Amino acid sequence: MATYQQQPFNEYSSVSGGGFDNSQASAGKPNSAGGQTTATLTPVTIKQILEAKQFVQDGPYVVNNIELHNICFVGVVRNVVDHTANVNVTVEDGTGQLEFRQWSNDQKDIERASQGEKGEYNSEVSQQFQIGSYVKVFATLREFGGKMNIQYALVKPIENFNEVIAHHLSAIKCYALANGKLAHPTSAVGTGTSTGQESNAQSLFVQDNDFSNAKPATQRILDFCRDQCRDKDANTFSVHTKLIAQSLGMLEDDVRMHCQTLTEQGFIYPTFDENSYFTL
User: Fold this and answer.
1) What is the mean pLDDT of the chain?
2) CATH number for 55
3) Where among 127, 151, 179 does a domain terminate?
4) N or C: which end of the chain has fewer CB within 10 A?
5) Model confidence pLDDT, tens digit, residues 207-253
6) How far is CA 263 from its chain centroid?
7) Spatial contact of 51 and 44, defined as CB atoms under 8 Å apart
8) HSE of 121 in the Cβ direction (CA atoms, 13 Å)?
């Protein structure tokens, strides 16, 4: 079993003071301002995850009036413990740290684990993590054995530190909306109920061109994903960026860029890998 460690959070963190103050959190279920559906992807800090409580058996975890179903958080990899078939990864974001398990899909790792071989061995899954690197984790919160567990974790490496800042800003916005410190948006994406001028003003996405009747590429991708995912199970189905590119006549690199925007906006999330998505 190999173990890698590093010292605490460094000076590049965009978070200070330990995340959000949980003193105003409701002792019951979240109010309507923070009510979430099970399909919601919620950006959070690690401190919020650690302070979340389950008020109803088998119900969602709640923190700061926000129900946590599908979550995402960012942080620095601080520790990796290699168990061959899986690794335990410790991530820290300046507000706290937590550990989650990532399973290997590599055939060599699985065979070696099943044979019970001992000795030094660096599994393929452990080599995906570099100590000191930033990652973004998509996961769900589940109770098991009386403890909170991070399940179905999908880890994406962060190559641009702006992603870290953007995530914390999204977490702040989510907190402010749930606690009445920020007004809720008055319109939804793609409702088609407003005039062209109003639609452009209220849209969450930047128009790709000036054609009055053309939908922006991001909206086209979202509509396509929604059609593909309708009545499907996220555990067995996903929409790949290659399929989107071929169906919509776009470059796959452009599709990946727009899918990243939709992920950050909370409309889709990656599933089996970073190029496969399902709608929320």
Assistant:
1) 75
2) 2.40.50.140
3) 179
4) N
5) 444 444 467 888 899 999 999 988 888 778 889 999 999 889 889 88
6) 8
7) no
8) 18
**CATH for 269:** 1.10.10.10
Buried b vs exposed e over 235-248: b needs ≥16 C-beta within 10 Å?
A: eeebbbbebbbeee
- Predicted confidence at residue 90, as pLDDT, reads 93
Say if residue 154 is in the same domain as residue 222: no
**Tokens found for residue 69:** 């179903």
Residue with tokens 């790709």: 208
The neighbouring-strand residues paired with 151 are: 140
**Residue numbers of the chain with a pLDDT score lower than 50:** 4, 7-37, 186-213
End residue of a domain, out of 179, 202, 228 = 179
Q: Which tokens hold the place of 95?
A: 């507000």
Q: What is the pLDDT of residue 185?
A: 59
Domain that holds residue 228: 217-279
Residues making up the chain, counted from first to last: 280
If asked whether residues 46 and 173 sit together in one domain, one would say yes
93 CB contacts (<8 Å, ≥6 apart)? Answer: 9, 13, 15, 45, 46, 73, 74, 75, 76
DSSP the chain: -EEEE--S--TT-S--SSS---TT--SSS--TTT---TT-EEE--HHHHHH-EE-STT--EEETTEEESEEEEEEEEEEEEE-SSEEEEEEE-SS-EEEEEEE---HHHHHHHHHT--S----TTGGG--TT-EEEEEEEEEEETTEEEEEEEEEEE--STHHHHHHHHHHHHHHHHHTTSSPPPS--TT---S-HHHHHHH-SS--SS--TTPPPHHHHHHHHHHHHHTT--TTT--EEHHHHHHHHT--HHHHHHHHHHHHHHTSEEE-SSTTEEEE-
Place of tokens 């995912």: 229
Sign, CA torsion 181/182/186/188: negative
